[in-house]
Amino acid sequence: MPVRHVVALPDAVLKQRATAVGGPDEALARDLVDTMHVSPGCVGLAAPQIGVSSRAFCLDVSGHPKGSSKHGLVVLFDPELVHAEGSEVAREGCMSVPHFTANVRRAISVVVRGVDAQGRECLYEVSGFEARAFQHELDHLDGLLILDRVASLSTDVFRRKVYQPPRPQP
Ligand SMILES: [Zn+2]
Fold first, then answer.
1. CB 3.0 to 4.6 Å from 140: which of 9, 46, 59, 106, for a disulfide?
2. Residues with Cβ < 8 Å from 151, sequence gap 6 or more?
C-alpha cells in the first residue's frame, strides 16, 4: 500500500534519530512520494513521518509561490547538510504537528548532498523556501520538530485556525 498513514506528535518515532539507509530504497521512495502527493498542501515528507526511522525524505516546492529555487521532485537518502548561509525567520507548518504553526529560524541558502532513488550521488544548492523545506526535512531525521526550533514557546507558536461555519442567526 503505497500511501501511508502520517504519524503525528506524540509518536516516539518522530523524536528518534533515524538510521542510515546505506543506499536507495525504491519502495520507501515510492511510499514517501505517494503519501506527499495525496496530502493537501504538503511540500515535503520525511520517512519518520510515515513511521519508518530511516534517513530519507522527499520534497517538491514547485507548486509553491514562495520558492526562489525549485528543483521539482527531490527524493534523498542519507542526506547531509554540507553548507549553510544566512538566516531568517518564517512561519512553518508540519503534518506531524497538526495543531500548530511556528516561527522558525533557518539558513537562507544551503547545499545538501545525498543519494537519489536510483542510487546516484546528488548535490542540491537551494535557497529561500526550498532551502527551508530541505532544513525542515533534515531536522525530521534527527528527531527535531518545529516546536524544538522556536526561540520562544510562548510567542513563536500559533494554534492553527480551524474553520468554523457561521452560527445560524436566531
Ligand atoms: Zn514536518
1. 46
2. 103, 105
Residue 109, domain member (yes or no) = yes
- Give the residue numbers annotated as catalytic, written as ranges: 137
Task: Indicate whether 164 belongs to any domain.
Answer: no
pLDDT of residue 164: 59
Q: Where residue 18 sits, what CATH number does that domain have?
A: 3.90.45.10
pLDDT score recorded for residue 161 = 78
Containing structural domain, residue 66: 12-159
Residue 1 has a pLDDT of 54
d(CA 139, ligand 1 centre) in Å: 8
Q: Which ranges of the chain does DSSP label H, i.e. alpha helix?
A: 26-38, 128-141, 146-149
For residue 166, tell me if it sits in a domain: no
Nearest to 64 by CA among 158, 139, 147, 131: 131
Whole-number Å distance, alpha carbon 140 to ligand 1 midpoint, is 7
pLDDT of res. 49: 98
Compute, in angstroms, the gap from residue 141 CA to the centroid of ligand 1. Answer: 10
Using the mean position of ligand 1's atoms as its centre, give its distance from the Cα of residue 61 in Å. 14
